[in-house]
Specification:
Layout (H helix, E strand, L loop, with lengths): L7 E3 L3 H4 L7 H10 L6 E3 L28 H11 L2 H20 L2
Parallel strand pairs: 1-2
Length: 106
């Protein structure tokens, strides 16, 4: 994805981050950066209704810190502090915007 200039969406489902430690999200970001993904990582949360999911052991699907898009400002702040304001802008919107506008330019 990185070498083909694709977009890598961050997933906020606990099963993919860590079952007990929401801050591991930032280790996932660091891993992507270590692979050269600074211009490929973007918010990619697929928020959906999970409360009637039959596997109750997975409830809740999201940590409160990642529960819906209303928490993006707090995640943005944490990315700014842990990494940089520039990277926060890239992940929060710039990478996705560049990807979309690159595809749809005439």
């Amino acid at each position: 994805m990185i070498h083909r200039k694709g977009l890598i969406g961050l997933n906020f489902i606990k099963d993919y981050i860590d079952l007990e430690h929401p801050e591991r999200l930032y280790e996932h970001i660091q891993y992507g950066l270590d692979l050269g993904g600074e211009n490929s990582i973007a918010y990619g949360a697929d928020y959906f209704y999970w409360k009637d999911h039959p596997d109750k052991s997975r409830h809740p699907f999201f940590f409160p810190e990642h529960s819906d898009a209303s928490v993006y400002p707090a995640i943005n702040k944490e990315i700014s502090e842990r990494f940089s304001p520039e990277l926060m802008r890239k992940i929060s919107h710039e990478n996705a915007l560049k990807f979309i506008t690159g595809i749809y330019q005439p």
